[in-house]
Design brief:
By secondary structure, this protein is α/β, with parallel strands linked by helices. 35% of the residues lie in helices and 26% in strands. It has a single domain, classed as Glutaredoxin (3-Layer(aba) Sandwich). The chain has four helices and five strands.
Length: 105
């Protein structure tokens, strides 16, 4: 299961993490976001000891959304050592998200 991050805890959970982090920028009204949501949750379970998998609701967290220039969702950013190292804009098969994450481990 993915961890819900917000404008308030983003720095602590994502930027300060010693593990690689996935951030899924999503919204309730976004159909493609709902399509990948179960995939992100599965990855969160499968990699819970190796990575941090999170979701950020763009409507409720405009500061972080703006800071990272998110204009299209779903947008999945991959962080390592507090820096964006990869991203996936739009839907994709689970294998693509997993490959991008495994490259950071």
């Amino acid at each position: 299961m993915a961890i819900e991050v917000t404008d308030k805890n983003f720095e602590e959970i994502v930027i300060s993490s010693s593990k690689p982090v996935i951030v899924d920028f999503w919204a309730n009204w976004c159909g493609p976001c709902r399509m990948i949501s179960p995939i992100i949750d599965e990855i969160g379970e499968e990699f819970k000891d190796k990575a941090v998998v999170t979701k950020l609701d763009v409507d409720k967290n405009p500061t972080t959304t703006f800071k990272f220039g998110i204009r299209n969702i779903p947008a999945v950013l991959f962080f390592k050592n507090g820096q964006i190292v990869d991203k996936q804009i739009g839907t994709a098969p689970k294998s693509r998200f997993v490959a991008k994450l495994e490259a950071l481990l």
